[in-house]
Amino acid sequence: MKINRREAVVGMTTALVSPVAASMGKQPAFANDVFVHGVASGDPAADSVVLWTRVSGQSGTVTVEWVVAADPELSDVIAQGRATTSSISDYTVKVVPEGLPAGAVLYYGFSAAGTASPTGRTRTLPTGSLEQLVIAVTSCSNFPFGRFNGYQAIADDPEVDVVVHLGDYIYEYSADGYGAADGRRLGREHQPAHEIVTLSDYRTRHAQYKRDPGSLAMHAMHPLIPTWDDHESTNNPWFGGAQNHQEGEGDWLDRRSVSLRAYYEWMPVREPGPGEPPEQRRAHFSFGDLASLYMVETRHMARAEQVDFADHEAALETPEDAATFYKDVVGDASRRMITSADAEFLRDGLAESVAGGQRWRVLANQIILAKVVAPDLDDEIFASALSIDNDYAKRLYAGMAQLGEVGLPFNMDAWDGYPAARERLYNMLSEVGARDLLAVTGDTHVFWQNRLVDSSGASVGLELGTSGITSPSGFQGFGKAAAARLDKLIAAHNDSVEWIEGGQRGFVRLTLRRETARAEFVALSTIDTRNFKTQVVRSVDIVRRDGTLDYG
User: In this structure, are strands 120-123 and 105-112 parallel, antiparallel, or unpaired?
Assistant: First the structure.
């Protein structure tokens, strides 16, 4: 899926200025007041891709024309048609042209109300032999914390084939909630100002995020494969509720329903199939003979409620009590993360990939998969953490210090809170001969380089965790020196953690080749202004050894 540099430059320079071509029966001039949210593509297949836009300032039912072409001028037309939109779908438009050529770089545009959209660039999935695949891995784009410069950097990289977004694409908090101080400082306060609960609220929040210049550029340049995590609805949901769904905010299932409705309206993703509930988002993307990418739902369909240490204080008194608690309570076999149907879907997809001889199997994983136990924080540098003016950081420090004393994981919202479910996943990998899983993970706002090991100590794969596009690591509240020290302590204390970096915002650039892969951890110099630079703060090769993966 490589293109030459001239093609890349043409695609980039036309992405936000070209009008829809005359082949649509008209030559409207570009007007930014109709297509202010840009264009996007996503969920590609070998013969189709989802195309998305929204029309603004209209009323009633609006007819929208669309075209797909082989050239940026949209003159070499491959497919075209019409769609309608209205307030029922918040004037968003999604079309899925079929019969497209496989492994192709394509261009597309929309026209409505006498005006043209920006021209977008997308790709279909390849079939047959493939030598290289470049994936940009992103997560956690919280609007008030800063500009989406990571998205802009991805847009500026012509070698990226697809963007995988691992969730927290939007955040639900109010303008005076999480990120409020940065939002006021940067003029990026959340809209609406209150915490989002209703369908109108979620639509307004999605619209705000889509208008960031970095977001506009990335969506116009590359196809997106997204999955949701928690903040697309609200913080830390599980099957029957959510941590941040409070009394007075209505029925949880109603809130979940409208949040997912807005997600499907505003994201370039395929609609649920016949009989499929909207909360079920699962997918398998096959990239020729090189790789398969899988995603399953981990929030709304099966996840048991998170264990709260505050409800089990007696279990934290000694390491022996803690070990028993983790085995019997946290490790209860009935505590699920994914549905049995999703497990079967994943099993079938992995088996198909192994049988077909694909080189790579990648799991688009929302939350940290590797086991990570809290380290012993008995270090003088952390005395400074208790003197800082940050109540959240103080509570976080105190909680981690207690967990480090008794040897427990510190993130019960991650797979560490569901060890039996994690072991079932690892057993599945062994059963289908796929002990070479490469998981890419979001959620924590931290870069990770991890090893995946089952209960017997055998390797089942590797994990690459991406930092947030703007969301900061919670440990940054300790102060820079203490946070950096904590990174080192976590890595030193856990054999599963090769490296961790919580002081940067950015993304992971993953290049898959036939024999090796390379992960580049890309950091941003700033998210305060649009003038930024990128730096690869770590680069690591991935190789095969003894039937599984290893870091080269």
Answer: antiparallel
Residue whose structure tokens are 């009008």: 19
Beta-carbon contacts of 270 under 8 Å, excluding residues fewer than 6 positions away, are 43, 50, 96, 283
SS3 278: coil
pLDDT single digits (tens) 126-172: 999 999 999 999 999 999 999 999 999 999 999 999 999 999 999 99
**Helix/strand/coil (H/E/C) assignment for every residue in 56-92:** CCCCCCEEEEEEEECCCCCCCEEEEEEEEECHHHCCE
Query: Tokens in use for 485?
Result: 């020290």
Please report whether residue 247 resides in a domain: no
Q: Which of the 8 DSSP states describes residue 529?
A: S
> For the residues 256-278, what does the mean pLDDT come to?
96
The residue behind tokens 């008030």 is 144
Token pair in block for residue 440: 């890419």
The answer to whether residue 188 sits within a structural domain is yes
Domain containing 297 — which CATH number?
3.60.21.70
Residue 363 φ then ψ, to 5°: -105, 120
For residue 105, pLDDT beyond 50: yes
- Listed in sequence order, the residues at least 6 apart from 497 whose beta carbon sits closer than 8 Å to its beta carbon are 370, 372, 448, 449, 450, 451, 490, 491
CA angle 533, 539, 542 (to 5 degrees): 145
Number of domains in the chain: 1
Q: Which tokens sit at 21?
A: 């071509």
Q: Do the domain assignments include residue 296?
A: yes
Provide the strand spans (E) within 266-322: 283-287, 291-295
In which domain, by residue range, is 320 found?
A: 128-163+183-229+280-533
pLDDT digits (tens, 9 = 90+) for 409-434: 999 999 999 999 999 999 999 999 99
Query: Using alpha carbons only, what angle is made at residue 448 by residues 531 and 434, rounded to the nearest 5 degrees?
Result: 125
Report how far apart the first and last C-alpha atoms of the chain are (Å, whole number). 25
CB atoms within 10 A of CB 502: 21
CA dist 56 → 34, 36, 90, 202, 398 (Å):
5, 7, 9, 17, 49
State how far the Cα of 91 lies from the Cα of 80, in Å rounded to an integer.
20
CB proximity list for 323: less than 8 A, separation 6 or greater: 407
Answer whether 67's CB lies under 8 Å from 122's CB: no
What pTM value is reported for the model? 0.93
H or E stretch covering 321: helix 319-325
Torsion of CA 41, 268, 365, 291, to 10 degrees: -40
Which band of pLDDT confidence, cut at 50, 70 and 90, is reported for residue 1?
A: very low
**Residues 55, 91 contacting (CB under 8 angstroms):** yes
Within-domain flag for 155: yes
CB 361 within 8 A of CB 434: yes
Instruction: Name the nearest CA neighbour of 123 among 46, 21, 66, 227.
Output: 46
